[in-house]
Amino acid sequence: xxxxxxxxxxxxxxxxxxxxxxxxxxxxxxxxxxxxxxxxxxxxxxxxxxxxxxxxxxxxxxxxxxxxxxxxxxxxxxxxxxxxxxxxxxxxxxxxxxxxxxxxxxxxxxxxxxxxxxxxxxxxxxxxxxxxxxxxxxxxxxxxxxxxxxxxxxxxxxxxxxxxxxxxxxxxxxxxxxxxxxxxxxxxxxxxxxxxxxxxxxxxxxxxxxxxxxxxxxxxxxxxxxxxxxxxxxxxxxxxxxxxxxxxxxxxxxxxxxxxxxxxxxxxxxxxxxxxxxxxxxxxxxxxxxxxxxxxxxxxxxxxxxxxxxxxxxxxxxxxxxxxxxxxxxxxxxxxxxxxxxxxxxxxxxxxxxxxxxxxxxxxxxxxxxxxxxxxxxxxxxxxxxxxxxxxxxxxxxxxxxxxxxxxxxxxxxxxxxxxxxxxxxxxxxxxxxxxxxxxxxxxxxxxxxxxxxxxxxxxxxxxxxxxxxxxxxxxxxxxxxxxxxxxxxxxxxxxxxxxxxxxxxxxxxxxxxxxxxxxxxxxxxxxxxxxxxxxxxxxxxxxxxxxxxxxxxxxxxxxxxxxxxxxxxxxxxx
Length: 575
Hints:
With 575 residues, the protein is an alpha/beta fold. It is 65% helix and 9% strand. The chain has 21 helices and 12 strands. The protein has helices spanning 14-27, 29-61, 66-113, 126-167, 169-189, 191-216, 218-224, 227-279, 285-297, 299-326, 342-347, 384-395, 416-422, 437-441, 450-455, 459-464, 482-496, 512-525, 538-542, 561-564, 568-573, and strands at residues 358-364, 367-371, 376-381, 403-406, 409-410, 423-426, 435-436, 472-473, 500-504, 530-534, 546-551, 554-559. It has a 6-stranded mixed beta sheet with strand order 6-9-10-3-11-12, sandwiched between helices. The two termini are 21 Å apart.
């Protein structure tokens, strides 16, 4: 089960947050601009409805002119057609901007997480990264939908103010002065919501990450009888997420209630002033109807502005979380100049990637390894942490002072993806992806996978599955036993046939007889190819040419497995 790490990178600077949100919107400026124009047409059409109704009353109903009535009603019908058309197509363009922005950000997060240089996962559980890529990207995408609506709402208020100024300067001034004050109040009221949105998403992501972590390690928890502790851990994370969600919901409720109350008071004031003007004869009955209708109409753009402000607050909070992932420092150094044609190296066959002469100096405080081409060497570490450190260094999962060269080339001058293709590290907890057995083993195969399956005794796994090599493997291989997963993972590494293969405890979940056969099969298949086995299993070590014994970060002894067995310290380190 993955250990939960609490070390976090420094929060992304404000410029990075603006870059995420602004960049996402700029990339969709075409659809956003089109949606803005169409929504403005819709809102303008909506604002004209009460105006036209007032005109119908003054120029057709009051005068009793049937021709004028038909003409103005036709114009009113045309207005409805235009505003309906504008809304339909504006919504389509806005939704397009929304979903494409969401998709683009998800791809950016996925690309950063999958970058060979790593680092984005530091301090985060897989579920948290999933939450950022899904929930936070969606919240930023909604901003692309909300922005045209907000601009259109402002345009609608401008149309309403213009009409009111024309019919009554008093009402027009009231709207022009009151609207900015109301918008400022709405923006101020949205600040608590923005402050709470970040912690809410953080707590929800943490709960999701803990849940994914526990599901992944369910079998281990069952074996350790640690289900109560796991439940307690998840309950704590879930309650924290619930508390954060309730806090954000309370802020959302207070915000919406305050916005609604402010809108109502403002509109009541507009209606009151308009009614007094009509009663005193300053404006006509039709103009009063138009004024009251415009006052009622203003409810919608004002509510839209409140909703848009809330989406902007949440979008900014989510942009910060996305920026934290995208700006996370890399775990390994970026490839330096002098990269010897990495693209060509990736496209070449494994046998063209070099002879497999590996030199590793400074792996630990006192561990240097020299592997000649075709060597089959074992490494036994008294401390499992030393073994893990050696494997991480050779896999380039972190930046270290160690100097590793392959055929005389410093691997630090290669892009991580290239160096890992040349020095393939097969971790003992390697993850299997969903697909068939054949697809799993052949993911990076250099040729026929049958020899690799046989060497890892994974062909026996295929034989017991209902559809053989076409049998489905669930995500992370959860449909298989631990031993079956290990053998398929080993077969996948062998099928890749890299110049240098590093195996880390590849048989901890198989029985002794099968382990001995796998050790012989790996040695036979990798004959002439360089292989480093970091393990404590006697069967694997007996198949190597020589073994290096590491104690307290230093090489304590070296020789064949048979000769080292005379050393009680060495025997004590074996599993």
